């Protein structure tokens, strides 16, 4: 096993030295058609764009998705991928990697705006209702670790402000479409001069700027976030359009993602990542929420 998050990912080694990545899907998160839709998109990106994505391998009967059952466990959907060489960008100096991240994200968005998904294409919708609202994919942020009445009241006001601003921002086709939804440095692999994008398991329909917010996942409270956002924007504008008005709304998407990750940590407490974040992640969100409310809330000029 090399990763346990939504799914379990294993490295499979053959005696010959060849290796693969095998993803065992979490039960109940995506339908088989939803997984097939993800694979259709990453194959299209690899074949028809400049974005390098994982290559799924078909089984002997030609199917990319295998349904595997073992004793004492419900059947799971499993996908095997070619092994991708490379390493995650170094976090020693983040401005360069964030510019690359923005540029690659822009390339994906340009392709997606002109791509026609196959019939029956099915992926999650990541809007306010399914993130922080009444139908959350990852449970409610109210169940986050270390939540209490005071935090809940602050985060509730913050969520209401996010909802109002997103409604005003709108879901026009130039702002809302098929996106990766987890464009962190951890999901980039640098192999020489080639940058690869991996882990499309959360991909779905959301605001294009949500991909910027996901780049800052778990580090939204860092002091250099404005510089990281500026680097991401520089890279993005090399490959895709981004208006000044849209850029000004990035803090809303960062705050949306932050509250959503509180929900993720609370509902995935068994994972190493959630345990490493824990209560302190919720505590550190207080200052972020207060700053966001001061900048965009009632009485502000924004």
Helix coverage percent: 40-55%
Number of strands: 11
Shape: globular
How many domains make up the coordinates? 2
**CATH top level assignment of the largest domain:** Alpha Beta
What is the fold named in CATH at topology level of the largest domain?
Aminoglycoside 3'-phosphotransferase, Chain: A, domain 2
Q: What would you call the quaternary organization?
A: single chain
Explained architecture:
The chain is α+β, with helices and mostly antiparallel strands and 302 residues long. The protein has 2 domains: 3-82, Phosphorylase Kinase, domain 1 (2-Layer Sandwich), CATH 3.30.200.20; 95-296, Alpha-Beta Complex (Aminoglycoside 3'-phosphotransferase, Chain: A, domain 2). Helix content is 43%, strand content 17%. It has helices at residues 32-48, 95-114, 128-131, 149-169, 210-215, 225-237, 244-248, 250-267, 272-296, and strands at 3-4, 8-13, 19-24, 56-57, 65-70, 73-82, 124-125, 176-179, 188-191, 194-197, 204-207. β9 and β10 (194-197) form a beta hairpin. 35% of the residues are buried. The model has no long low-confidence stretch (mean pLDDT 94).
What is this structure, in a nutshell?
By secondary structure, the chain is an alpha+beta fold. It has helices spanning 32-48, 95-114, 128-131, 149-169, 210-215, 225-237, 244-248, 250-267, 272-296, and strands at 3-4, 8-13, 19-24, 56-57, 65-70, 73-82, 124-125, 176-179, 188-191, 194-197, 204-207. The protein contains nine helices and eleven strands.
């Amino acid at each position: 096993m090399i990763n346990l998050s939504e799914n379990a990912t294993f490295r499979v080694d053959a005696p010959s030295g060849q290796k693969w990545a095998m993803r065992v899907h979490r039960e109940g998160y995506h339908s088989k058609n939803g997984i097939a839709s993800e694979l259709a998109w990453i194959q299209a990106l690899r074949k028809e764009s400049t974005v390098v994505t994982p290559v799924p391998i078909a089984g002997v009967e030609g199917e990319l998705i295998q349904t595997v059952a073992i004793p004492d466990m419900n059947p799971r959907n499993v996908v095997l991928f070619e092994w991708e060489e490379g390493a995650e960008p170094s976090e020693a100096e983040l401005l360069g990697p964030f510019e690359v991240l923005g540029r690659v994200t822009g390339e994906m968005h340009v392709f997606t705006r002109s791509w026609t998904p196959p019939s029956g294409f099915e992926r999650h919708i990541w809007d306010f209702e399914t993130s922080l609202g009444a139908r959350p994919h990852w449970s409610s942020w109210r169940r986050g670790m270390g939540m209490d009445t005071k935090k809940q009241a602050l985060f509730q006001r913050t969520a209401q402000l996010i909802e109002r601003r997103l409604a005003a921002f709108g879901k026009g086709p130039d702002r809302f479409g098929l996106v990766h939804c987890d464009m962190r440095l951890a999901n980039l692999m640098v192999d020489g001069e080639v940058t690869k994008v991996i882990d499309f398991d959360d991909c779905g329909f959301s605001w294009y700027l949500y991909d910027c917010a996901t780049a800052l996942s778990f580090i939204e409270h860092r002091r250099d976030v404005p510089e990281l956002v500026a680097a991401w924007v520089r890279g993005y504008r090399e490959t895709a359009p981004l208006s000044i008005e849209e850029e000004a709304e990035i803090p809303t998407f960062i705050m949306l993602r932050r509250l959503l990750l509180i929900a993720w940590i609370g509902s995935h407490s068994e994972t190493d990542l959630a345990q490493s974040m824990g209560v302190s992640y919720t505590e550190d969100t207080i200052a972020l929420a207060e700053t966001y409310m001061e900048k965009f809330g009632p009485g502000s000029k924004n």
